[in-house]
Amino acid sequence: MTANQIPFSGAANVSGGYLLPPEQGEILVNGILVETGAIQLAGDARSTSARKTNFPIWLGRPTAGPVGEGGTKGVTGAAFGQATLEVVKFASIIVFTDEQLEDLQNGDLSVLADAGVRQALSVAIDAHAVDLSGGSNISGGSVFNSPFLPSAGPGVTLAGTTGTEIQKGVSAALGILEENGYGNPADIGVLLGFGFQQPLRDARDANNRPLYDGGQYAGQTIDPLYGLARAHSTNLVSLNSSALTFKGTTVSGSGTITITTRGTAPLVIGQPISDAKSEIPAGAVIMTKTGVDGAETAITIGTWVNGVLTAAVCGGTEATPELITVKRPVGVIAHRPNIHVRIRQDVVVKTSNEASVELVAGSKELVSLFQANLTAVLYETRLGVLVHDSTRAIVPLWY
Fold it and tell me: Whole-angstrom Cα distance, residue 355 to residue 351?
């Protein structure tokens, strides 16, 4: 629980609190759906009246073929399965003094509170959708059933950060989706960390004309990402960030790497990994992790073989901890219909000046709002996120 998500302690929505304008909640709802980068990619987003939702999904791919006059019609090879999506709650509380409320002019509360709370909720939801918070692992992992990254399949490692190399990486990711049967570009979206915009803007041809984002050829604007739906996330690692490293030891013939110095590098299943002394084989990725997310004590390595993550072993022993590098998770290319979002409750705004709240998270010290001349404003929303067939429907971008 972070400082900006302080829980209400025995709070009731009593009379006498400051009343917010009714349109404020609508602004917040629209903001979550628009601002949350990962949620923008969802091809199946709808409301639900249940805390847990079961819905059918395709297993395999449908088949079809010609049939002669009066001939027997074949039954498609795909079948329906069941997916379960659980709804979770995100919340934030703002506390005002009575003097602040008295001094506020009509509409000022929206200016002071809405933008900040909308962003805080959006960032938190986005973090759990990609299972990273500000480029670091979320302690304990995502609260959603199936976030984007930990179970993602074979990815694409960008060769560099120029506009052309970024576009080639996106094209290669599209190729993987096409091989997996997800080839309709209208159903595909891209979620990127920050740092991609400038190299795309700066890309030039031999005549110093911009290649993308405004470059014109025969009257047509060149799209750097092939017309894909495009969103950005501050929780993915920035393309311009420094190298991600930690220290560990290896044993020849073993796939386990013991972590001695963890650092802040996010460790994600499927993440490419290497070392300067080549004990770790080429093409290796993280296969499993041991320990709490963000404080792992060991990992095992594997390689992708025909789309399946298969165990691998180190080629040498390094008893002295050495520097190990992992690629940055900077984006994902996704088949949007496989991303499901269920909203149980839009943003609800409640106020109270008589409840007791914990002003400092974890302190267990309750403050009486009435005695302290304070008014608390509670914002909360409930939703769930699930990705089915994630190893084939989502392709990570690494750098």
Answer: 9
Closest listed residue to residue 252, CA positions, set 281, 285, 283 = 281
Beta-bridge partner residues of 376:
95, 352
Alpha-carbon span 266 to 16, nearest angstrom: 46
The confidence score (pLDDT) of residue 61 equals 62
Instruction: Return the exposure string of 287-324: e unless at least 16 CB atoms fall within 10 Å of the residue's CB, then b.
Output: bebeeebbebeebbbbbbeeeebeebbbeeebeeebeb
**Tokens found for residue 17:** 């609190």
Read off the pTM: 0.80
Q: Which residues contact 98 (CB under 8 A, 6 or more apart)?
A: 353, 373, 374, 375
Counting DSSP H helices and E strands in the chain, the numbers are 8, 25
Helices 115-130 and 23-35: crossing angle in degrees, nearest 10, is 30
Half-sphere exposure of 109 (CA within 13 A, CB side): 26
C-alpha 64/C-alpha 391 separation (Å) is: 25
pLDDT digits (tens, 9 = 90+) for 276-318: 999 999 999 999 999 988 899 999 999 998 888 899 999 999 9
Is residue 112 predicted with pLDDT exceeding 70? no
Burial class, 45, CB count within 10 angstroms (exposed 0-12 / middle 13-18 / buried 19+) = middle
**In the predicted structure, residue 18 carries a pLDDT above the cut 50:** no
Residues 6+ apart with CB under 8 A from 116: 94
